[in-house]
TrEMBL record, chains A, B:
Keyword field: Lyase, Metal-binding
Single biological process term from Gene Ontology: ketone body biosynthetic process
An example Gene Ontology molecular-function term: metal ion binding
PROSITE patterns: PYR_CT
Record-given protein name: Hydroxymethylglutaryl-CoA lyase
SUPFAM superfamilies: Aldolase
Residue numbers spanned by region Disordered: 1-23
Organism, scientific name: Rhizocola hellebori
Family designation: Belongs to the HMG-CoA lyase family.
UniProt domain Pyruvate carboxyltransferase: residue ranges: 8-269
Length: 298, 298
C-alpha cells in the first residue's frame, strides 16, 4: 500500500514499563530478559528506570541489573528518570538515552508524583539543561481521573518541552483511552505547530484499540512505537486489564502489512514465552498464545 | 472524519457463534442472554444454529431456546443452518433470516464438514433455490491448515454464490488470520466484480488485530460487522485464544469515533458481565474489564 511506510521502529519497554507494573521479579530474570531481547533484532530497549525504591520497588535493583546486562552494540538502551537524582544515577551508569515523563492531565500528574504539570515542566526544563531527554507526555489521549484531555493542551506541553530543549517527544496512552479519532486529533494538533518533531507513540491495549491506534498512526506517517514483549505490564486503574500493546502483536501485524521492523518474530515469541515464565501469569498476547498467522496446523 | 460513515450495523453472534465454542450451558441461560441482548439496541442477533446435536452438542436445544425467547419486534433474529434438514427446522421455527457457511479453503471445509468446497457450494445452491440465505465464507483471510487463501479464490466463490441467489455475503476470519492488508485485498477483489453486493465482515481477535481490521473495513466503506458479547467463543485451533471480537469493544471504538450503532454501551456491558457469569470464565473483553474510556476513577 502506498500509504504505508517500508519500515517502523519499535522500542521494547517490557523490562521497564512492563516489569514496573508486575509483581517484583529477581534481578537475574530482568538481566536474562534484556539479554534475550537484545538478540531479537530490536534496536531500542527501555532497560530500567532510576526511581526511588520506596516509590517503585520493582526497579530498586536498576544499577545491579544494568551492570549485569550484556550490552549489544547495535541496540540503543534507554533509562527513565523522574528527577535530577535519577538523571545523575543514569548518567553514572553510562546511559546516553534518557526519558522523562510528565502527565498532560494535572490530576494524573499530582496523583502520580505529587506535583502539578507546571511544576514538573519546570523540573524537566532544568534536566534538559544538563542532558537533553525525550519527554513522554502521559495521559495524552485521556486521563482516568479527568476524562478527555484537550489535544491543544497536549500541543502546548509540546511547545514548552521543545522550547526547553527536548529533542523528541512521546505520547503515552497511559490507561488505554486512545481510539483512532483521538490519535488523529493529538497528532494533528502537534503537527500543526511542530511538523518536523520526531514523535513516538505509546499505546496500551486496555480496551482493545492498541493495534487500531497503531494502524491510524502508521497512516499518519508515524513510524516509532513503544511495545512490551508478551504485553508485560498491567494497568493500576483496572485490575486484570491489559497493559502495553504486546510487541509480537505489533510486529506480527506490521510485518504482514509489508512494514519491516528488523525484528525476528519467531525469536521474539520465544522471549515472550520467557517473559510469561518470569512473571508466572498468562500474558495477554494473542500472538504468543496462538502463534503467528503463518503457523499452520499439521 | 469525512472518511468515516455516520452509522454501522452490528450483528450480535454471541448466542450462536460464541456459545457454540464454549462449554455447553443450559437452555435457560441462552434464553436469558438473547432476551437481554434484545434490549441493548442491537438490531440483529444470530440466535441459534440448527445443526446435528452429535456434531455440535452446544446447539442441541436450539428449538427449545428459540421457542422460549421473547421476540422483540425491531430485532432481526437469524439462524445458521448446515444443510436442507437444518433449513427445514429453521423455517419451521419461523426464522426468516438464514445463514449458511462454506470455507474458502478446501482443507478447512473438509475438516469441518467432510466435504470439498465445491460440494458445499452445490448444496448451498440447492438451499438457495428453497430459501435465499446469506453465505458466510469462512477462512476468507487465511486457513489454519493451508495458510494464505488467495483473494481471487474468495472472489470466485462470491461469483458462484451470487449466481446461485445469495442476497448477501459475509467474510469470516475464522481463526484470526486477517490483518489490514488482507482485508483490503479480499474486499478489493470482491468489489471489483460485485461493487454493489451487501457484505458483512466477521473478525476474530485471535492475534489482536480485530479492531484494526474493522477500522480498515470502515475506511473502505463497509458498515456491517459480526461481534460477540464479551468476546464469547474460543478458538478450537489455539486453546485459550480469543475468539470473536467483543461487541462492546467494537461499539466502544465506533461510538468514540462518532459512528453510531444504535446500541446502549452501558447496557451492553451489563450483558457482557452476564455472559461471563453464564460461561463461568473470564471473558477477554477489555471494555468489560476496564469499562468504557468515559468511566473515570473517583
Amino acid at each position: 500500500m502506498e500509504m504505508w511506510p517500508a519500515n517502523a521502529s519499535i522500542r521494547e519497554v517490557g523490562p521497564r514499563d512492563g516489569l514496573q507494573n508486575e509483581q517484583p521479579v529477581p534481578a537475574a530474570d530482568k538481566v536474562r530478559l534484556i539479554n534475550a531481547l537484545s538478540h531479537t533484532g530490536v534496536r531500542r530497549i527501555e532497560a530500567v528506570s532510576f526511581v526511588h525504591p520506596k516509590a517503585i520497588p520493582q526497579m530498586a535493583d536498576a544499577d545491579e541489573v544494568w551492570a549485569a546486562v550484556d550490552k549489544v552494540s547495535d541496540v540503543v538502551y534507554s533509562a527513565l528518570v523522574p528527577n535530577q537524582r535519577g538523571l545523575n544515577r543514569a548518567m553514572e551508569a553510562g546511559f546516553d538515552q534518557i526519558e522523562v515523563v510528565v502527565s498532560a492531565s494535572d490530576t494524573h500528574n499530582r496523583r502520580n508524583i505529587n506535583r502539578s504539570t507546571a511544576e514538573s515542566l519546570d523540573e524537566i526544563a532544568a534536566l534538559q539543561a544538563v542532558k537533553p531527554a525525550e519527554v513522554i507526555i502521559a495521559t495524552s489521549f485521556g486521563c482516568p481521573y479527568e476524562g478527555d484531555v484537550d489535544p491543544l493542551r497536549v500541543a502546548q506541553i509540546v511547545d514548552r518541552v521543545v522550547a526547553d530543549g527536548a529533542p523528541r517527544v512521546a505520547f503515552g496512552d497511559t490507561t488505554g483511552m486512545a481510539t483512532p479519532i483521538r490519535v488523529r486529533a493529538v497528532i494533528g494538533a502537534v503537527r500543526e505547530r511542530h511538523p518536523d518533531l520526531p514523535v513516538l507513540l505509546h499505546f496500551h491495549n486496555t480496551r482493545g484499540t492498541g493495534l487500531a491506534n497503531i494502524l491510524t498512526a502508521i497512516e499518519l506517517g508515524i513510524t516509532e512505537f513503544d511495545a512490551s514483549v508478551g504485553g508485560l505490564g498491567g494497568c493500576p486503574y483496572a485490575p486484570g486489564a491489559t497493559g502495553n500493546v504486546a510487541t509480537e502483536e505489533v510486529v506480527h501485524m506490521l510485518h504482514d502489512m509489508g512494514i519491516d521492523t528488523g525484528i525476528d518474530l519467531d525469536r521474539l515469541i520465544e522471549v515472550a514465552a520467557m517473559a510469561q515464565e518470569i512473571v508466572g501469569r498468562e500474558l495477554p498476547s494473542g500472538v504468543l498464545r496462538a502463534g503467528p498467522r503463518s503457523r499452520t496446523v499439521a
